[in-house]
Amino acid sequence: MKTRQLLAIAASLLLLGACKGKYEPINNDNDHLASSADSAASSATEPKLVKTASINFKVRNVEQTSMQLTALTTLYQGMVMHHHVSSSIENTRDTRVSNDSVMRVSAIRTVAELEVKVPSVKLNQFMDEVSKMGLYVAERKMDIDDKSLDYLAAQMKLNSRNQIISQQKKGRIVIRDPGAVVNLKDDMIDQQITNMKIDEAVKYSIVDLSFYQSNHINKEIIANDDPANYTSPFFTRLKVAFSNGFMIFQSVVLAIANLWLLIVCAFALYFGIAYYRKRKRTATLNTANI
């Protein structure tokens, strides 16, 4: 009873405040406003409780659990709003099989995220069924947000604006600014949408599901992408080495042949200098003997 009286008083105050300012009342209608406030308060006596939940758990197989959760959600007359599966490589190692092949061994971690919407009256049952699918539950959480006052405020504002529009049509209230009528109707639409969203959130609960499995090993044979491993056999390379050596020898001979004139001049200069030094020593010895 106290809650109902407080809601009725709050409704009356909000309605009186909403009717002041931009509008010029011609006739008083306090009885009508009071009755509207009482009706708004009585309509909001039902609590508007928005439930949300989340579970984080480990499973044997992420892919199979995803399909089971989708089927379970359908069974509970719910809907999958978001589904995301991802795999990441935790560690990898390459083992050479042949010159052109490598066996790659990878440790892969797979996780999944689901966001489902289920009827609020079946939320606890749904959570229990989901918990049974996992090896163990790492975290389970449920929150309840009371939207009763928000719903009441939006409903009271909507009623007050409905009354103003009705009285304006009857000529009992004069709205001097035509743009105010448009704004008033836009506010009414926003408040209707707000309450519709609250009703939807009260009727259906959002559940965030995140689950994962143990790392699994994946083996695959892939092409060897290291160019250094693509070399010829030893004897083939030895044959190529002899051939390359003979080609280098030929190049050296050709280079010497191209420089024959310089070589002749070098020899002539060498012998000329040697001959000059020998004659000089001979002349020096003859002079000393005399």
TrEMBL record:
The chain crosses the membrane at residues 247-271. Residues 48-162 form the DUF4349 domain. Keywords: Membrane, Transmembrane, Transmembrane helix. Pfam families: DUF4349. InterPro entries: DUF4349. This is DUF4349 domain-containing protein. It comes from Mucilaginibacter straminoryzae.
